[in-house]
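dumping the sequnces here before i forget
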Amino acid sequence: MKNPSTRLLVLLSLLLTFGAATAQETPTPGGTAIVVLGSDPEHLNPGISTSYPVGAVAANIYSGLVRQRADGVPEGDLADSWTVSDDNLVYTFTLRPANFHDGTPVTSADVVFSMTDVLAPNHGRFITAYNKIASIAAPDASTVVITLSEPYAPLIGLLTVFDAPILPKHLYEGTDPLTNPVNNDPVGSGPFEFANWVRGERVEIVRNDDYYLDQALLDRIIFRVVPQDVARSTALEVGEADLTWGFYLPPADLPRLEANPDLQVWRGITIPALYFVFINNDTPGLDNPLVRQALMHAVDRDQVVEQAQGGLGQAASGPLGAGFAYAYSEDTDYRTLYPYDPDRARELLAEAGVSDLELRFVYDSARSAFASTGEIMRDQLGQVGITLRLEPVERAVMVERVYNGDYDLSMQSFTSSGDPVIGYHRIYLSAAPGTPFVNATGYGNPDVDGLLAEAASLADLDARAAVYDQVLAILAEDVPTMVMFDELATEAAAASLRGMRTLLDQRDGLEFLWFAQ
Amino acid sequence: MADQRITNAGASGSATMAAAWKRFRRNRSGLLGLVLVVLLALVALLAPLLAPHDPFRTSRNSFSPPLVTEGHALGTDHLGRDVLSNVIWGARVSLLVGVAAALTATLIGVFVGSLSGFFGGWFDELLMRFTEFFQIIPRFVLALIVVAFFGSGLLNLILVIGILSWPQTARLVRSQYLSHKTLPYVDAGRALGMRSARLIFVEILPNVMAPVLVVASLDVAQAILLEASLGFFGLGDPNLTSWGGMLNTAQSYMQRAWWMSVFPGVCISLAVLGFNLLGDGLTEAADPRMSMR
Amino acid sequence: MSGAAGNAGGEGGGLGKYVARRLFNAVPLVLGVIVVNFVLIALAPGDPVTHLIGEFPAPADYVERVRADYGLDRPLPERLVRYVGNVLQGDLGFSFANRLPVLDLLLQRLGRTLMLMLTTVVLASALGLALGVLAARRPHSVGDRAATGFALAGYAIPEFWLGQVLILVFAVWLGWFPAGGFRSVRIEYSGWAAVVDYARHMALPVAALSFRYLAITTRLTRASMLEVMNTQYIVAARARGLSERALLRRHALRAAALPVVTVIGYNFAFIVAGSALVETVFGWPGIGRLMYDSIFTRDYPVLLGILLLVSVTVIIVNLLTDIAYALLDPRVRY
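..and the predicted 3d for all of it:
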């Protein structure tokens, strides 16, 4: 470019383009986003259910005391701020001024009512906190005091809208929360208000203009119910949907979606979840740790991640996964301890004196990742002389069978819910038979129980790490369950959508969504 | 001596059988049906010899399109398993379930229909109510419920499909017995002192088998389709390869691997077509007036 | 067709009594359906309450309370009696999974399934009749063979697979039609645009659903047309110089339509089954999809409600078909 004017022109146009580009990245309000749900929510009360679609819609209609940013750091939601006493037993929350969508102010009375009358009897996760709570008090209209009976590190994480939504006392008092019609016509205090629900098709929420925190940028969000998993990807591709979370995306479609210039795909870890296989300690042969170690050697977990989970997993894992740095140690990584080695597996089986084992693999028939894992295991266990019978059953039957010991191997996935204390301890703690969603193996080690209890009381992560190291060492030897992989979360959205994953849970914080023009 | 002649007079003599076969041979589509069915049977029987791989054997070479990887003519599925081998072994399940279910349906249907047609009376009334009941609820819906609730093993599938299909046969057999029981040879048999059981099963039954075989053939087609539908909903036996099961898995991979869906689908269609054509051909051969031509 | 005009005089009263008798007979049938299904479902393993709880361990007394709320802790005969009593009063129960009265839920979804089913029946019947007539006019011609071949394919091809293939070809590869759902979600059309929107979404599911029906109707029309065309009656009319078209229209079609009408009516049950399959493939939010879902969520009241609905519908359609048959064919005496 010899002519200086030309150079200036080029420079100017570059500046303008750059300027325009940056200008486009400021959030612009307005518009409607369509978010995909894989099934119709049963109702819209997150206080009586931990179901995924219920939380997805209701988390944006209701509020909790706190919310968690993407990095896991908690900040105030309905609670403006909070203090913790020195002995870690007394938590004092100061509520900020806020109203429910019908204009009624939110007070501490609503908080106490929600927790004691609705959540405590009905919410599976909140119970784990409630069992450690000695009292919940409301000294004045904007103060809530929670007193624990013993220190419980995960408490704050259990006070988000998913586990402790604040429900309107004036609409729920004196009614049965399970059948109250407000469940289908919710009145919350969140960034969106409930607008409309066409059963089996869509749920609509609209911006709450009186929201006390970040005003929603979008005017409206439509949750569209798409039961067929493949149709969810197609909906994105043809512009009939703007956002689909990994929970609802078939992994097989990800490469195609990633290649599509009109879409954006994200992979990463939000809230860690662990995929594993319960090993029934009461089945003859499976009570021998050598046999269990053989099982780990016999299955190629990298293949499982690649084919059964579509690559959305991390096979490097220990007994408590790899999602929490303080609960993971390289010494107890199953990839180094039990690499895929069918010969070694056969050796161990011979050493244990076990041959011609026939095992029943029980799993929830709705989970295709479990089915594929079972089929890979059937092939690979077969090669070391173990016959695997696949028994897919509906969830209700699976729960009944597995948690009453009627199985040999069973694949499960448990979410950590943000803290291994909440989500993972239950995999290894001794449990009475018959309780769903806890340890179903019949394995119980008093040392492990003691160590896990200790870890639960420690807020300091380094101290916890030291305790976990001891636990991991024991579990890595005993292998009570076959840990398959840590789940990798994913998300696919229209290329122009911004503001996803501002908060920790992908379903949360939809008020931050906006469309770039 | 006398009963021998009487029996012969009623039975389908070899003369009529030969004529029927000649008619069947002339019917091109019926022959096509026969060819398809025989082909299916051969594939099913010789599966261990024909299949190039163990259908359950997984590998890291997943989603290979047809003719791309050596040794996998129809490609591989999401777990790296050979599609051709699975299709071949799937023929076994389809054929087994189809034939066994149709056989069950035929046995029950013949038994009930013959008694009902021959004796009439309250038994007949009961049967009619029964068949009406089965007509009301679509078979697929009932099968779905029963299998979803009580398990999807092979035996379950055969029993469920068979039990849902017998009313058709029963009604046909019943109407046949209604018309046959007034014929002279039956009267003659009665006059000779033959017991009812003998009359029903030894004398009349052979004359009635022709249309029953036609219905049985169509039953097999229906059973194969029903089994595929159940498999498509994930209610097949998971420890066996079946075409319906393959279609169920293929759903998630339609865009990425069309061959996982196309080949089992084509096979189901051909199998069903084969039995339908065979049934039509048999209809025409047995009695040209009854046919659709 | 020997004239049985003797019946014409008593037709009105006879028909009325016939209908009454049939309806009367239908009652124990429906009752039987309810009882059998109720018992069947109650015997099934798997606890519906588990589905309601979510993915996390729930406190034991919460579970017990939900169970009691839905009356699941009572003995079977008592539940059965209570259920039947409720049904007779128009109360079909409360859906576990949807937290809505069953009747409301069914009514919401029924319309959408009817959209599919009625369109299918009308289209497939009309098209089938037309194709069958065309094929019958020139038997064994190329057109005839094509129609017959097409009909045979329709018998054999599973409709759910056909649905998948249609989506792949027409929605994904060609992009002519939406890939699922029952109307556009982003924009709410009204008036004529809404009709077009619904039509676009219905095109593929109706195509998949009607294929088999079309096949049956085509074949049957063709067969009965051929049979009729060869009768003396028609030959004589042709000899009298009646034009081909008038012949078809006035005589042959009417006679041929008879068995077709019966087939359409009696195969209605298959369309119901087919709709469950097709609604699943296309994500069509109708009764078929609801039935499938409620089986897997063990939502017994909804399932029973649907079975009741289906059986009543099939009975009514059968009855209507019988009446149509009786009216069309003067030979029938009741």
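Chain B touches chain A through 19 residues (CB under 8 Å).
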